[in-house]
Amino acid sequence: LEHKAEGHEAGLVNYNNGLPDQDTVPSPVKKGESSVRKRPGVDTGSVKKKPGVEPNYAGAREPKALPGSDLSVVPNWPSKATEERLGQLSGVAIDIYGNAIIFHRGDRTWNGMTFKGDNTYGLEKDKPIPQDTVLTVNATGDIINSWGKNMFFLPHMITVDKKNNIWLTDVALHQVFKFSPYGGDHTPLIVLGERFVPGSDDKHYCKPTSVAVSDDTNSFYVSDGYCNSRVIKYGVTVTPAGVHDVKKLFEWGKGSGPFTVKQGPN
């Protein structure tokens, strides 16, 4: 089996302590108030008290301790402006500079109408998510890079490898993607699986869930998924011209194996 994808490795984007280098990364464009979408049930006009989170005298929330851990929740992260741009969250990864990269579903939610009985996508296939679905958020909770609008239908998980490349899965598309750091030119370096077509052979997935990448980035694993319950290992080489040559090495767990998922998310 051999998969090939045209693409070029992009140079690393320099984000200094969560802030982009102005010479290499364009400043994010702040959108007007009219473009901010409120999540259903979220009152953006007032601060609501949450159990275990008490406001201090300055109006900021105090961090909440995590039982059995030295870690605590960072107060007031993300910022209110960032929170208002988030839809249903599907995955979070940390880039090599310590920024959080969030993969979210914009105006989509996973419900009983999302998939048909044969695992094909049940909604309109000509209407991808119109919002940016991949947001890079720095230590202060502000968005410093965003992309991914009109590309995805039901985001699932995100992985950032040691070279800062971004790997994404979309369970509606039944596909796996690799992009350059921060999306590059938004053209994927690797695309695996057939768009909207579920399957269990070497060229198809069925709701693939996530990707794990080796430290040298020369191999990766795909967990596939809600239907096939298997893990597939691939090897990948990149030519001097930037062409990615992906070959399946082996798989395990298919059928009623150790990775069988009895039901999807509620």
Summarize the structure.
This protein is 2% helix and 29% strand. It is mainly β and 266 residues long.
Folded structure, characterized:
- It is a single chain.
- By secondary structure, this protein is mainly beta.
- It is 2% helix and 29% strand.
- The protein has 1 helix and 15 strands; from the N terminus they run E-E-E-H-E-E-E-E-E-E-E-E-E-E-E-E.
- The strands form 4 sheets. Strands 1-15-14-13-12 form a 5-stranded antiparallel sheet, with no helix packed on it.
- The model is unreliable at 1-14, 16-20 and 22-58 (pLDDT under 50).
Q: Percent helix among the residues? A: under 10%
**Beta-strand fraction estimate:** 25-35%
Q: List how many beta strands DSSP finds.
A: 15
Spatial strand order of the main sheet: 1-15-14-13-12
Query: Helical region count?
Result: 1
Query: What series of H and E elements makes up the topology?
Result: EEEHEEEEEEEEEEEE
Termini Cα gap = 36 Å
The shape, in one word, is: globular
Question: How does the major sheet shape up?
Answer: 5 strands, antiparallel
List low-pLDDT spans. 1-14, 16-20, 22-58
